[in-house]
Amino acid sequence: MLFSIVYITQKNQESAKKSIMEKSHENEHPIKAFGWAARDTSGVLSPLNFSRRETGEKDVQFKVMYCGICHTDLHQIKNEWGITKYPIIPGHEIVGVVTEVGNKVDKFKIGDKIGVGYLVGSCNECENCTNDLENYCPGQVLTANGTHSDGTITHGGYSDLMVVNEHFIVRWPDNLPMEAAPLLCAGVTTYSPLRYYGLDKPGMHIGVVGLGGLGHMAVKFAKAFGTKVTVISTSISKKDEAIERLGADSFLVSRDPEQMQAAGGSLDGIIDTVSAVHPIFPLLNLLKTNGKLVMVGAPEKPLELPVFPLLLGRKLVGGSAIGGVKEVQEMVNFAEKHNITPDVEVVPMEYVNRAVERLVKSDVKYRFVLDIGNTLKKS
Ligand code: NAP
Questions:
Q1: Structural domains in the chain?
Q2: What separation, in Å, do the N-terminal and C-terminal C-alpha atoms of the chain show?
Q3: Which residues line ligand 1 (CB under 6 A)?
Q4: What percent of the chain clears pLDDT 90, i.e. is strictly above it?
Q5: What is the pTM of this model?
């Protein structure tokens, strides 16, 4: 009896706490908003009423039209990195149309097509910020599951509207379809390291590990830079398409030791986009002397780093995270000029849970994009 009273009291307290939390999401800001959120690690999203801040003097308010589903959303929905604050409204590959601007906004006007990636704030003062590297600012505010300066949690693009400081918004080029929203994360996350690490020189030979959302963009950018590209994949089924459709020059099955050995010492650089723990020794073996292995995938556990192949070939292992706002604008402009768009499967909002299930199985070519503008219905 006592046990059941304690149990019921605990249950009541939990549900009261839950309703206070949900209420605060709905009421913490003045503008009513609606989106889809994950509430626990199950991987299931459901509708959520929440709120957005008023459009401040340097803010742009916009209607979300399309939002990509990045594997980072999946890591966060399932709390694979251990940092998720539920309920989480994911989404950081966002294209929208401006509906309101603050009185000190000078870059945008109502009706403009715009893009927002994974950053909606930074300190604006540090060395990184002053060098257009807001993506490395210790005070950066991520678009979803981040923390605003007022302590409230950021909510991403699986939602009807957003309010973002104009500095973190890019102009969406006229000739890019809005469905190409994955450029805003998958695109810049691969464009940026190819540029920064000097892996963009015509004639170089670049490897791309993992042919998913990021990987297929790495192939497209590396080809546009004039390099030769080898895809390194666990999925032999992706070979024909990698070569015939995406334009890769060759394909290696990473789980075939003979193929990997035969290609040893052939690559100037590698962009590794794999989302799970995997061995990197065979990848280091693929590099020439002075070759560079750049990690952009974010497995939830550390990878083993063998040192001898680094010493003996003066090889480098580096990393890279998204891109600064200026570089995101440069990248979308480059994509427009070179006719580079992601291969996407556009799906309605209600399909999000199925899309998440399929992404877990790498069953997408190569990015799901939610058609928020036409299909997000308030229930
Ligand atoms: P994705 O579409 O799921 O692609 C990941 C690819 O990795 C898969 O298609 C698969 O390619 C390969 N893969 C999956 N499991 C594997 C395993 N166990 N062993 C070997 N290969 C495996 O994911 P994404 O959206 O491209 O994101 C990839 C990673 O980058 C995620 O961890 C994401 O969080 C991270 N990310 C980082 C940044 C950054 O700023 N650095 C930005 C965005 C995303 P194959 O079938 O070809 O083997």
A1: 3-185+323-375 (3.90.180.10), 187-319 (3.40.50.720)
A2: 40
A3: 70-72, 75, 185-186, 189, 210-215, 233-235, 238, 273-276, 278, 296-298, 320-322, 359, 362
A4: 91
A5: 0.93
